[in-house]
Each structure stands twice: as structure tokens, then as C-alpha cells.
Amino acid sequence: MATLEQLWTEGTEALEAAGVEEASLNAWYLLSEAFSITRASYLLSRGKEAGVEETGRYLGWIAVRATRYPLEYILGKQEFMGLSFKVNENVLIPRQDTEILVEGVLNSAKGKKVLDMCTGSGCIAISLAKLGNALEVHGVDISREALMVAKENADHNQVQVEFVESNLFGNVTGKYDIIVSNPPYIESKVIETLMPEVREFEPVLALDGTEDGLYFYREISNAAPEYLTEEGEIFFEIGYNQGEAVTNILKAAGFAYAQVRKDLAGLDRVVYGRLR
Q: DSSP characters for 5-53?
């Protein structure tokens, strides 16, 4: 029987051969999950023979990951804003970049009514409900399957979020103080150039922003004034090269103020708009 140390090495080599980035780290996450171990317990037991059942589980996961199936889907979870979220192929995997968007909204959310458009896994809506002391949070998505995941995540994180199945604002009623959205914004032609983990396994519905990547920004911005209070605010996550275009879209839709905000790498990441 192999030891834990040998299994980690074997998994790393298999993932490197498959072209997986950060192969050693990926192998570690799968090893730690399969054997329910921490780094400390690994160091104490790495030379011991590994259990048969756990070894089989681990090697099976390595084989799946070697097909470029996302690590997060194998584990069935992803951390975001310090919270744990269930993920599967019906939802986009939450990214650290999106935490910049949420952190911006947190500064404004206290006591406010918030709408999260294109909610997916619910990571934005749930984070705002859990951390932002928002008065009320609604999450909207066209995908019924995504909303099922989002509802599970709300229950798991013990927050109240009302989820609505809707094609953008089609089934939305009422007024909101804040609209936040991480919509599909990748140009259709670019999707085929993405990493296999993304283009082959994550939902295209959550990625494809149509020909120029700006379709959903236009649709949401043009409709938003009808659903925002007089001093309503809007927050978009954007692609690194979309800041000027989305700012102009907001201004054309009647927003008095629009500003690009950068992420920690210095790239345009969020556009903030205010009606008045």
C-alpha cells in the first residue's frame, strides 16, 4: 500500500501530465478531502500506509481532475467571502475577483433593499445578507437549476434571501435601493479560448455576454431606473477591458454618476453607478 506522501506525489504527477495548473495544490486539496486531514495531521502521518477506501476515493478524484473537470465541482464546494457555497455544473464557480464587487456593496447595503441580478450560486446575495446587514435581499436568475443551488446555499449559511426565477426583470416587482450584478460578460468568440475547466464544464449561460460581451449590461442598465429608488445605486462586475463601455452605457441609461473601480491587480473590475 502507498503512503500519503506517495499518493500526493502520484496525484501531482498525474495532474501535471494533464496540464492542470497548480497541480500539487490541486492534489493536496483532493488528498485532504479524501482522507479528512489537515496539513498538521499529514505531517504526522505522511509515512504511514493509507487506507484502502480513502485511497480509492482520492485516485478516482485525481483521474476526474485530470480530465480538466474543475476541482470545485469535484469537491462540491467553494469558499467565498469566508463563507462556504455548494457548487455544481448548474452554477458558475465563485471567484475571488467577485469579492471586490461584494466588498463595494457592503459599504452601502446596511438597511437597504438589494437585488442581485443573475444570482447563480447566490454567493453575492447570500454574502450581502450575511455580512452586510441589508434590510432585504432578492436574487434573480433565469436558471431554475441554479436557483435550487442558491436556495441550498442560503439555508446552509442561515440567511433569508428571496429567489425569483426570471429572465432579467421579467418577473421582478417593486423598488430596490441597490442593484448588483455579475452578469455574463465574455464575448462569444472568446469562450473557445478559455481554459478547459471553464469552457467545457461551467455553464455557458453564465459566461456568454453575446457578440460584444455587453448585452446584459445594456439590458440591465436600461431597465434599472424603473426598479431603483430615486437615489438608487447599481454595481456591476466587469471584464478588465469593459470599464469605459459600461460607464457609457450607464450614463446613456440615465444614471447621473458612473465610476470604474479597480481590483487588487490594478485592473478595472467594478462599475458603480448612481441615479442622482
A: HHHHHHHHHHHHHTT-TTHHHHHHHHHHHHHT--HHHHHHHTTSBPPHH
Please give the model's pTM, rounded to 2 decimal places: 0.96
All structural domains of the chain with their residue ranges:
4-67, 78-274
Q: Three-state DSSP class for 186?
A: strand
Pick the CATH number of 78-274 from 3.40.50.2030, 3.40.47.10, 3.30.499.10, 3.40.50.150: 3.40.50.150
Pairing of strands 176-181, 268-274: unpaired
Give the pLDDT band (50/70/90) at residue 10. Answer: very high
pLDDT per residue over 106-147, tens digit each? Answer: 999 999 999 999 999 999 999 999 999 999 999 999 999 999
Task: Please give the backbone phi and psi of residue 41, each rounded to the nearest 5 degrees, phi first.
Answer: -70, -30
What residues form the annotated binding site for substrate?
A: 182-185
Centre a 10 Å sphere on the Cβ of residue 7 and count the other Cβ atoms it contains: 23
pLDDT at 1: 82
Mean pLDDT across 96-112: 96
Binding-site positions read 141, 182-185
195-210 tens-digit pLDDT: 999 999 999 999 999 9
Q: Say how far apart CA 242 and CA 200 lie, in whole Å.
A: 24
Our measurement of the distance from residue 88's CA atom to the centroid of its chain's CA atoms, rounded to an integer in Å, reads 11
Taking residue 115's Cβ as centre, other Cβ atoms within 10 Å add up to 28
Q: Please give the annotated binding residues for S-adenosyl-L-methionine, written as ranges.
A: 141, 182
**Per-residue pLDDT reduced to its tens digit, 158-170:** 999 999 999 999 9
Backbone angles phi and psi of 75, in degrees to 5:
-75, -25
Q: Please tell me what DSSP assigns to residue 188.
A: G
Question: What are the φ/ψ torsions at residue 228 (nearest 5 degrees)?
Answer: -105, 150
